Amino acid sequence: xxxxxxxxxxxxxxxxxxxxxxxxxxxxxxxxxxxxxxxxxxxxxxxxxxxxxxxxxxxxxxxxxxxxxxxxxxxxxxxxxxxxxxxxxxxxxxxxxxxxxxxxxxxxxxxxxxxxxxxxxxxxxxxxxxxxxxxxxxxxxxxxxxxxxxxxxxxxxxxxxxxxxxxxxxxxxxxxxxxxxxxxxxxxxxxxxxxxxxxxxxxxxxxxxxxxxxxxxxxxxxxxxxxxxxxxxxxxxxxxxxxxxxxxxxxxxxxxxxxxxxxxxxxxxxxxxxxxxxxxxxxxxxxxxxxxxxxxxxxxxxxxxxxxxxxxxxx
Length: 315
Description:
By secondary structure, this protein is α/β, with parallel strands linked by helices. It has two domains: about 5-80 and about 270-315, Urease, subunit C, domain 1 (Roll); about 95-260, Alpha-Beta Barrel (TIM Barrel), CATH 3.20.20.140.
């Protein structure tokens, strides 16, 4: 019986799934090549979740009698998962604190905001290792995921502590030790690397290559804040490739499925798979790599930004 759907993206040159077998993260050899379909279409249902992905002719036959709220011809274009920023500081304007507090109150009342993670800045002169342990352990006992700043300016063994406590992710890690890298790989604790911070503050680059080779789950974030004023994930991916020696598939995985994993959201976000949220980008290029290759050119490349199957930006 025919039914209605929210969105049909058809005739794409490439659909970059990133994952195709329900993986919650990619590490090690799995990063060598991402799952990509050539000549494909994608359907998002009225609930905002992906209902089908496949070759153009297969989707055309399967949904020939279906209706769509919107159809977009993606001929010659690429569809990618919505990018995930695993570490950002979007609110820091002091003069708007009262407005922000009111928004939080409204969101809390409407059930639109909740706390998932606990964070501590584990650093010399800020929170030492013992203080960090107590705070994080208390948060864990309250049911919060551990996701914290560590080993940025000094090697304080934050990575080892995070692995011991079962942290979901640790950010920065410019000064992480070899033992910390090994511990994070074993614990499946994501390393959220922030190439803009190292670039703008002239810090030592995080050892992404060492982490990747050791099997650490590597994610990327913008660290958007007054000291690193960049919230462009395409530029973050480019810097990760140039300055941290990551490959383009590694960088895209780090800004999609692995970033979602770092936030505890990879079961619903970070890849294009049936049952996941219909958060997507459509870029005007026949190859997805151009999103990373064209440094600063993403404004011209990105034609659509889509969340839950609804277009929120159209060039």
